Please model this.
Amino acid sequence: MSIHTLSQAIILAALVFALAYLPLYASPYTVTLMIGMLGYVTLATAWALFSGPTRYVSLATVAFFGIGAYTCAVLSESVSYPVLLLTAALIGLAVALVVGLSTLRLAGVYFVVFTFGLAELVRQLVTWYEVNMTGTLGRYIFLPVTPEGIYWQLLALATVTFLISWGVARSRTGLALKVIGDDEVVAAHCGINIARVKLALFAVSSVIITLVGAIQAPRWTYVEPAIAFNPTVSFLTLIMALLGGANRVGGPILGAVPLFLLFEWLSANFPNHYSIILGLLFIAIVFVLPRGVLAFIEENWKRRHNGGAKAVPGVAE
Model:
């Protein structure tokens, strides 16, 4: 391990350690705020794990998030909490494998449309089942899980997700994903098993997103399709990942933290105009920072550095 890598590991460990102690001293409101922030940090990082290098824009985030939440609601009174989380992860994995095998051959706008339709399909199926089979629209969740417990679970999941992202980016799989994102024809000629690599990362990403939904569900006490399958979750996750830099390790975190705080402020102060502002912000990010903040900073630093290097011979003359 290099000195640079070791220093990064020490900084990460210190940050996680400090965040783990936060609920012991913070107010209930701060803990609640941090739960939402950690949730979106994990969602954005998990989304970028697959969509960042492959450039497959997925809007199915809320489908898996809602599956996790509803699994928690349905099984909250029948199984223990660890078994509940494991069951949610397995269901998310099964759905991801089915969806991945069926759709990962699509590309571009077709994949975007399908994933958006998938989220809506799952919401409608859950709504139909609840209304016609159970005679109600939602479910209550009564679990002995404190806000602090939810916070620590999300912190652990966010840390694991970041480590997976960091490891994949430095592995042969990460290199294969970048080649696939640049040109799948070239990737196929290089001997990369495109279908297997994409399916594996899509499944890992989907399982993490499902777990976020299952862990956060006890916060609401009452869950219904409109809450669990709110499409805003997919769009916020996408915006956060794009702002920070979906193809950069740590980029989604850089986008998720400030945007989450901004969205919280906007929703509290401009509840009637929140959706409009969200749409305008999304358009601005796509046009102004198409590759994310990290890429923008790096490109400007290189431009200034190269410009300065060229100016030196002129001064000497």
